[in-house]
Design a protein that fits this description.
The protein has 70 residues and is of the alpha+beta class. It has two helices and three strands; from the N terminus they run ββαβα. It has one domain. A hairpin with a 4-residue loop joins β1 and β2. It binds zinc ion. Zinc ion binds next to α1.
Length: 70
């Protein structure tokens, strides 16, 4: 039995005010999931987003992970 990823990545909550939904997706799929949701459901409007409560933490994680702080 392998349980390699349990400590690192519980998933990132994405919230959409228009749909009143929250869904969790893996950190490396967040940008994709948001883009796809907004394109398919909101004509590309930027409505769904990472939960603001943890957006700062995620920004840190993502920036560290992917080097997006530039
Ligand atoms: Zn939506």
């Amino acid at each position: 039995m392998t349980a390699g990823t349990e400590s690192g990545d519980p998933g990132v909550p994405i919230v959409c005010d228009a749909c009143e939904t929250t869904s969790r997706v893996p950190l490396d799929a967040v940008a994709d999931a948001i883009e796809r949701h907004n394109e398919q459901l909101h004509n590309g409007d930027d409505i769904a987003t990472v939960d603001p409560d943890i957006a700062d933490q995620i920004a840190d994680l993502v920036a560290t992970d992917l080097g997006l702080l530039e």
